[in-house]
Amino acid sequence: MFVTASKFLGFLLKQIYYWTENYIMAITLFTLLTKIILFPVSLWTHRNSLAMVHLMPELNRLKIKFYGDKDAIAEETQLLYRREGYHPLLGTVPMFIQLGLLIGVIGAVRELLAGQESALSCYPSLAGGIMLFMPVVAGLSALTLGLAQNRLNPLQREQSKAGQWMTNGLSIGISLALGAFVPVGVGFYWIASNLLTIVQQLILNAVMKPEKYVDYRELEKSRQELAEMDSLSTHVSKEDKQREKADYKRFFSIANKHLVFYSEKSGYYRNYRAVIAELLTRSNLVIHYVTSDPKDIIFEIAKTQPRIKPYYIGETRLITLMMKMDADIVVMTMPDLETYHIRRSYIRKDIEYIYLFHAMVSTHMIYRKGAFDHYDTVFCVGPHHIREIRETERLYGLPEKRLVEAGYTLLDDLLVQYGDRKQIGGKPRILIAPSHHEGNIMDSCLQGIVEQLLSENWIIIIRPHPQYVRRNPRRVEEIKRLYDGQKNLIFETDFSTNESQYTSDILITDWSGISMEYAFVTHNPCIFIDTPMKILNPEYTRYECVPALLDIRDKIGVSFHPEDVAGIAEAVKRMLSGTLLPAEEIASITAQYVYHLGESGRVGARYIIDSLKAKKEQRKG
């Protein structure tokens, strides 16, 4: 193909030379002609670039909406691209065309100058002397093009300064190399092409004006919103980076690691606490605890428990650590193993990966399809988990996992803690604790609910989801100002304690999994607002199993539509009086959804100990 292209370009260049009888003029006109011939391709690419810039406000808001969740951002970005018909790889088309042209031009120039004594046939790197100015001029032409494109090219203009200079640096580097190691005639073509590209970009902008396709005011607004979100996030300090490097090295310096726990952040320790406590009591196991939170509580706990070995490993380095994992058992609360960036070990294929739930909700609606497919063992909270996972295996032809009737460690701990503070007395306390998903109570009907409740002599606690606070700081401040001065209203953004959740008499929520924990701990009823459901797996409708949050909704509470919340205060009165969903009614269904109440830590630890013993015996055999 390149030989054919070279012959055609050589023929074209010769014809232009015969007409002009000047090599420089011929190469210049030849370059201009190729730009004209390929203008439709350039226009196509320009349109694709404008499409990308047009999507940037929505992309920025996706980053805000799913802030910190790289997998969700990547997934939603691909869905957006498909919906809008945008193709990221189209931007590489001109590069490949330019490469093909360059190869053809080298052959064409050689053919044109064959047998001729001309400076245009010299290689600057070999000729030396004044010819060495050629790579300098080529580099300067690339620099000029880059600076122009930073202002003229709609896509490059929106890159960060670092991104622009990375793009320009690559172009300058290529130009310097071409100027030095190809014939001067080819270098001259390259220089002419760079300069004519500036003219071409001006024409493209005139033909398809970026302002007609891009809402730059909205783009700037979304950029500021994302910058505001970034400013709220904490960045890894230099000390934590050094600590991470040392912990990574220490982790792999230890041989024969039998048991590893991984925690995304400090809050997940509460899900492991009961199992770890039982393991420390009933065995002599050393527990290697990897966390991506440098302030994880595990570091304080380990100071008084020498058999807990904690390691801080950030999310990026975690990818490598997991791929190189060498242990008998790895326990995690993170779904989607092997689906996104966290993979099973490629060092050892016999590691047993155990999933421990950090919520009581169902597996087939709230979680993504395949969220648990790559775990070997699942510690199930209740019968609903076993039914759902077995049905998943049948529907998709998956091998059976080991399903342990484990119970829910967090619920056991909460029951113990709640026993010490159940009788708080005073005015009735109504807790509003929504989810963080689109259309939740905070964004749909909060004001209507609060207005009703404030008309009564009750304490109202608004506790937004931590993710909502993180993603919507301005909205949170607006709500705070709206209710500032209301003596019976508390706006709670301290998430270090769950005190308010288990000292409240009624919970008002939407689709938050906290409803099951609240009802089973306090035996108090809930009021549900039927906002749009959180559905990460639309294929849940294929299942015979009804998701637990749907199944239990009318057993532990009553529901209201977000546009019709007029009867909430009356429902609260009936619940407080015990005439609607009394405590004994809710208490009676707990065992239907939870295994081994009060014993889940012992059950989980017993399984791990027995499994490790079996692996040891297997190695001996």
List keywords for this structure.
3 domains, six-stranded parallel sheet, alpha/beta, Rossmann fold, 30 helices
In short:
Helices cover about 55% and strands about 10% of the residues. The protein contains 30 helices and 13 strands. Strands 3-2-1-4-5-6-7 form a 7-stranded parallel β-sheet, with helices on both faces. A 6-stranded parallel β-sheet has the order 10-9-8-11-12-13, sandwiched between helices.
How is this structure best described in words?
The structure is a single chain. The mean pLDDT is 88. The two termini are 62 Å apart. The protein is of the alpha/beta class and 621 residues long. The chain folds into three domains: 2-231, no CATH class; 242-407 and 599-620, 3-Layer(aba) Sandwich (Rossmann fold), CATH 3.40.50; 412-593, CDP-glycerol glycerophosphotransferase, C-terminal domain (Rossmann fold, 3-Layer(aba) Sandwich), CATH 3.40.50. α1 (2-20) packs across α2 (23-37), α3 (39-65) crosses α4 (70-84) and α14 (269-282) packs across α30. The strands form two sheets. It has a seven-stranded parallel β-sheet with strand order 3-2-1-4-5-6-7, with helices on both faces.
